[in-house]
């Protein structure tokens, strides 16, 4: 028996039009799941769907993850396509590299809305759907900046710390029906961190990473599929799983 087989499952990847999100969507499709790709940039979402067509079923949807009505409409649209959502991946992200005293209220509100409020909203709306349907797996994408916080990304670090806390809270709230976990990626060349990955910062990261390199998007796939599988991860909930090349394992 292949405990990583997701055939018959439907996954919704919020932020599935980005570098990390599209890689995770690809893994889900290749393991048998139907995948809904949701994001604000429909052109990118359509490109992802086209790239997945050779492996299985995928469809693109437009959503503003900071708006309750958009997420409710997304749930309706996806369940019209496939009656039940079994896997939810919260991968939407926004970052800023402003010094603390230059962070505006608008910066704070925007980052917290995309990174944290979206998890709250999808958990209330999609999570309720999963509870009513009798099962599911929610996988939140956190960050190494969540604990301890990284310099230069104040609002982002705070938002991802909130994601960690919500993950643990919801694992208890939704148990035993729906499992809720988070992946803590290390440093990957994703859109939201390219602005902060100067050469000096990359050098500092590599000096602090035992594996001595940045991650590749495909290196998140194994952890994602494990957490998505009701067989492989049947007794795993409330966990924050690091995929960071050892970054969080050392101090100096």
Tell me what you see in this structure.
This protein has 252 residues and is of the alpha/beta class. The chain has a single domain, classed as NAD(P)-binding Rossmann-like Domain (Rossmann fold), CATH 3.40.50. 41% of the residues lie in helices and 15% in strands. The chain has 7 helices and 7 strands, in the order βαβαβαβαβαβααβ. The chain has a 7-stranded parallel sheet, with helices on both faces. α3 runs parallel beside α4 and α4 runs parallel beside α5. The model has no long low-confidence stretch (mean pLDDT 94). InterPro entries: NAD(P)-bd_dom_sf, Sc_DH/Rdtase_CS, SDR_fam.
Keywords:
single chain, alpha/beta, Rossmann fold, seven-stranded parallel sheet
CATH topology title: Rossmann fold
In CATH terms, the superfamily is: NAD(P)-binding Rossmann-like Domain
Strand-and-helix sequence, N→C? EHEHEHEHEHEHHE
Mean pLDDT, to the nearest integer, reads: 94
In terms of per-residue confidence, which ranges show pLDDT below 50 for 5 or more consecutive residues?
none
**What is the CATH architecture term?**
3-Layer(aba) Sandwich
Total number of beta strands: 7
What structural category do the secondary elements indicate?
alpha/beta
How many alpha or pi helices? 7
Helical amount:
40-55%
Tally of separate domains: 1
| Rg (C-alpha, Å) | 17 Å
CATH class type: Alpha Beta
First-residue to last-residue Cα separation = 44 Å
The major sheet is characterized as:
7 strands, parallel
Strand order of the largest sheet: 3-2-1-4-5-6-7
Shape: globular
| Beta content | 15-25%
Protein name: SDR family oxidoreductase
Family: Belongs to the short-chain dehydrogenases/reductases (SDR) family.
Keywords: Oxidoreductase
Organism: Alicyclobacillus fodiniaquatilis
């Amino acid at each position: 028996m292949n405990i990583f087989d997701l055939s018959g499952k439907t996954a919704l990847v919020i932020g599935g039009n980005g570098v990390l999100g599209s890689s995770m969507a690809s893994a889900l499709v290749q393991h048998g799941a139907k995948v809904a790709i949701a994001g604000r940039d429909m052109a990118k979402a359509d490109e992802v769907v086209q790239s997945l067509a050779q492996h299985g079923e995928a469809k693109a949807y437009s959503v503003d993850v900071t708006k309750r009505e958009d997420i409710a409409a997304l749930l309706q649209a996806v369940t019209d396509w496939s009656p039940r959502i079994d896997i939810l991946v919260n991968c939407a992200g926004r970052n800023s590299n402003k010094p603390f005293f230059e962070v505006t209220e608008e910066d704070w509100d925007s980052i917290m809305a995309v990174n944290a409020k979206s998890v709250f909203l999808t958990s209330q709306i999609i999570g309720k759907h999963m509870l009513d349907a009798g099962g599911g797996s929610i996988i939140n994408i956190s960050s190494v900046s969540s604990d301890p916080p990284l310099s230069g990304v104040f609002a982002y670090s705070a938002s991802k710390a909130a994601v960690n806390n919500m993950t643990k809270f919801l694992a208890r709230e939704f148990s035993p029906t729906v499992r809720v976990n988070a992946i803590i990626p290390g440093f990957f060349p994703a859109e939201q961190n390219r602005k902060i990955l100067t050469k000096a910062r990359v050098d500092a990261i590599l000096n602090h990473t035992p594996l001595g390199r940045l991650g590749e998007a495909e290196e998140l796939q194994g952890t994602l599929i494990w957490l998505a599988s009701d067989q492989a991860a049947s007794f795993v909930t409330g966990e924050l799983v690091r995929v960071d090349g050892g970054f969080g394992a050392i101090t100096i």
